[in-house]
Amino acid sequence: MIPDVTPNGVFYLPPTGWLTSFYNPPENFGHTLAEFMPNGSSPVFEATTVSGIILSYNAFQTVINIGGEIKDPQKNIFRAITISLTIATVIYIMLQIAYIGTITPTQLATHGWSGLNFASPFADIAILLGIHWLAVLLYLDAFVSPFGTGVSFAATSGRTLAAMTLNRRIPKWLGEVDSTYGNPRFAYLANFAVGALLVLVFRDWALLASVMATATLIAYATGPVTVMAFRKLRPDYTRPVHSKMMPVIAPLTFVIAGLAIYWAMWPTTVQVIFAILLGLPMYMYYDRKNGQISWKRQLKSGGWLLVYLAFLSMMSYAGSKGFNGQDWIKYPYDFLIIIVVSLVFYYWGLASRMPDSPDLEAADKLNKNVRQSVRQHG
């Protein structure tokens, strides 16, 4: 039996070792690269977004979102992120070993790995092996386990939405905090409504996971450009968490985010991008209402992102067949094009940074508080 961890942090004795104890043919793992990846490397990336793997690893952001409530954030944020990613990696490796090790040669004889079709792989395998109690446990865990993730994400997403009111881009009432419990109840209700709408529209789990992962990745794509822009605009900021490798990490992260958005496959890519662009009217309305910087100046500074999203949409349509494209651009040349062009957009975004804005002034005030806090606590 191999100990494992569910996404909500509950330790239990999982199916991994139990299943592999029944059958573990070493030939399933392959002795050469061709045997290890019989269908090539493309399916590895195809499965990354649609299977929910990216969505699962996304839990690390919870640590950052509540970083202001963490003791000694300079050290503990890095530790928490490292631990969460390591645990997720170990879990997935164990699950893969269990899955590969329990498939019999008979099941692979006809169509190979691509011919396997399990709605619930581990539960179905447990039923085939006659371990019915384990199948029941797995189905039960599939229902209970997401509640832990749901609770943590409900807390962080609600606070994130409430904090956005400080930028005056959304209605102020979303930032109102309940005097009794100290929670932004209206932000929670708004997030619940959006979540319910997503479940109604995207009823298939694989599609919903792909949509959520893609939307998150588009948000992540702005992060590398933002952090390097801040370092150039405000090099004297007090930064409790500072990485000297950021000039290398930032462009690399931006490229990986672009590739991962592409992995979501056509037409999910363009659907998510279109849904995000639907928020532009609200953004423009509140800019006009609050007398913010002219649209022309904002378009000049942020136009690179709109063009980049259009580029990814076109690549998704024209890309290789494995990613639901028209196969006009074969694999791996589609990857190479995205890598090179993404670097161009990264440096374009960095060069078009806005030297002054109300948001930057707000960041200056916030950093003064950070500087004072660092001085007080050493």
From TrEMBL:
A cellular component term (GO) from this record?
Answer: membrane
Q: How does it sit in the membrane?
A: Multi-pass membrane protein
| Membrane-crossing segments per the record | 77-101, 122-140, 146-166, 186-202, 208-233, 245-264, 298-319, 331-350
Main subcellular location: membrane
One GO term in the molecular function aspect is: transmembrane transporter activity
Localization terms from the record: Membrane
User: Keywords in UniProt for this one?
Assistant: Membrane, Transmembrane, Transmembrane helix
Which Pfam families does this UniProt record tie to the protein?
Answer: AA_permease_2
Q: Would you tell me the protein name for this molecule?
A: APC family permease
Q: Which organism is it from?
A: Ligilactobacillus animalis
